[in-house]
Design brief:
Length: about 325
């Protein structure tokens, strides 16, 4: 597992524990007791470190390569999964995955941004950075869900929309704007969960939802810290300062009423206990989804529209 800069002391204790597990017992050392002592020390260190993470450190955790991604959530939470591909206009963009399945007995439409876990899958999914056809696929699936009265679940995890020339040539900005517009007009509930990195318009395109959830160490911002630093100070090395200014943490965004709830992660981050993190997300989604039972479609739509219009008003 990749060790982050601020986790070095934690990693040292983990390595000591791992080394002791491979030793045979001796008269000079009670290995079981020593392991218990080190595990208690490890837990205390992790609690101390993770309770005081800076916004930049949270950014690093949100981007951790071992953090569970959209397909991990789909494999664990969704049964009878049937992927749906293509935008019926240009092609299929694998940066956005989507399809129909069952979540705790409910038929749902699932849309997620997939970054990939290794070099091959990252290239296949373009590191989660969708091109216009990806957002048009999301639009098609949202409209399909609305037609059949199926709730929509989205998993947000992207550094942003694909920034290349071909994206602009095929209408990147229009595709993102249209995705937001379509989202606001759906009469079925939409629940979005920011599971890692929620970057710019690439994130909001599938996060214009009735309920926006966010994992404890995820981030959600209008621009990446590096991008912000490059624009303001012409120096991407000042990204930690930008991260402080952007108010991109879940805790900041809950205070600003941009999100509805923070989902607690396992101690040490979702990358350490992915199954536990995924199950916590599933329980929270299920709780919110049930609040829309028997709610009239027009009220569901109005609630979503009021939510986002309310963000534009200054108190």
């Amino acid at each position: 597992m990749k060790t982050l800069e601020f986790e070095k002391n934690i990693r040292e204790v983990e390595e000591k524990i791992e080394g002791l597990r491979h030793l045979a017992p001796t008269d000079e050392m009670n290995i079981v007791d020593e392991i218990k002592r080190l595990e208690a020390k490890l837990k205390k260190q992790m609690e101390t470190v993770y309770k005081k993470l800076t916004p930049w450190q949270k950014t690093q955790v949100a981007r951790h390569e071992d953090r569970p991604h959209a397909l991990d959530y789909i494999k664990t939470l969704i049964t009878d999964w049937t992927p749906l591909r293509g935008d019926r206009c240009f092609g299929d963009d694998e940066a956005i995955v989507g399809g129909i399945g069952r979540f705790n007995g409910r038929t749902v439409m699932v849309i997620g941004q997939e970054k990939g876990h290794d070099t091959q899958s990252r290239l296949k999914h373009n590191f989660g950075m969708a091109k216009p056809e990806g957002y048009r696929k999301a639009i098609r699936l949202m409209q399909l869900a609305d037609h059949f009265g199926i709730p929509v679940l989205t998993f947000v995890d992207t550094a942003g929309a694909f920034p290349g020339l071909e994206g602009e040539e095929r209408g990147q900005a229009e595709a993102i704007a249209k995705a937001m517009d379509v989202s606001l007009g759906l009469t079925v509930p939409i629940i979005a969960t920011v599971i890692g990195e929620g970057g710019s318009g690439g994130a909001i395109a599938i996060a214009t939802a009735n309920t926006v959830l966010m994992l404890e160490n995820a981030i959600y911002s209008v621009i990446s810290p590096e991008g912000c630093a490059s624009i303001l100070w012409k120096d991407s090395a000042k990204a930690p300062i930008a991260a402080e200014t952007l108010h991109l943490t879940a805790q900041d965004l809950l205070k600003l009423k941009v999100i509805d709830e923070i989902i607690e992660e396992p101690l040490g981050g979702a990358h350490r206990e992915p199954k536990e993190a995924i199950e916590a997300v599933g329980r929270t989604i299920d709780r919110y989804l049930s609040t829309f039972d028997n709610m009239p479609p027009e009220i569901i739509k109005k609630q979503r529209q009021d939510k986002f219009m309310g963000m534009t008003r200054l108190d």
